[in-house]
Amino acid sequence: MADNDQQLIDATQKWLKTIVIEYSICPFAKRELERGSIRFVANHDTEIENCLLNLMLECDRLNIDPSIETTLLIYDKAFICFDDYLDFLELAETLLIEQDYEGVYQLASFHPDYCFEGTKQNDPANYTNRSPYPLLHLLRESSLEKAIATYPHPEDIPERNIELTRKLGLAKMQALLAACYPS
């Protein structure tokens, strides 16, 4: 693995551990990290077609390898602009449907400049979906449904995360994310 790939993966793993898991942004992530069932893939492509092809290759990998529960596709050179990322996300979701993966796999979206519609850029709540690099999180929908079924009040997770990040504050959330990057 190239040094650059390892840096991207290390930063993403640090984000996962120190923000997502530490603050229980996703209460299901810790189990999968401990099981070693999260696949981290560094993608240096900048062409949309290649990025979409790589997404389909990851779907194929999940189809044949049940030991992988979820994949994080990390983009270091593409989709730097959040609007470009959203355009790509829309294409990726459409492709999943066209390839008959609707109901099989689901995408969760993360970006360093993530901003929920209707919120201000500096709202700490945006940090529930801010990551060191643009990411697509490819999840097995059946596993997600099982996890949600055993979790008390899963519908409360987003509101809890919004309250938590706002309570922690913008400076704290900025510092947590900044600490994920290689020094």
Please give the structural blueprint:
Blueprint: H1 3-21, H2 29-35, E1 38-43, H3 48-64, E2 70-75, H4 82-98, E3 105-110, E4 135-140, H5 141-149, H6 157-168, H7 170-178
Helix pairs in contact: 3-4
Number of separate domains: 1
Principal-axis shape equals: globular
Count the beta strands: 4
Structural class by secondary-structure content: alpha+beta
In terms of per-residue confidence, which ranges show pLDDT below 50 for 5 or more consecutive residues?
Answer: none
Strand order of the biggest β-sheet? 1-2-4-3
Oligomer: single chain
Alpha carbon gap, first and last residue:
20 Å
Q: Number of helical segments?
A: 7
What series of H and E elements makes up the topology?
HHEHEHEEHHH
Write down the overall mean pLDDT: 95
Biggest sheet details:
4 strands, mixed
Description of the structure:
- A four-stranded mixed beta sheet has the order 1-2-4-3, with helices on both faces.
- It has helices at 3-21, 29-35, 48-64, 82-98, 141-149, 157-168, 170-178, and strands at 38-43, 70-75, 105-110, 135-140.
- The chain has 183 residues and is α+β, with helices and mostly antiparallel strands.
- It has one domain (3-178).
- The protein has seven helices and four strands; from the N terminus they run H-H-E-H-E-H-E-E-H-H-H.
List keywords for this structure.
single chain; 183 residues; alpha+beta; 4-stranded mixed beta sheet; 7 helices
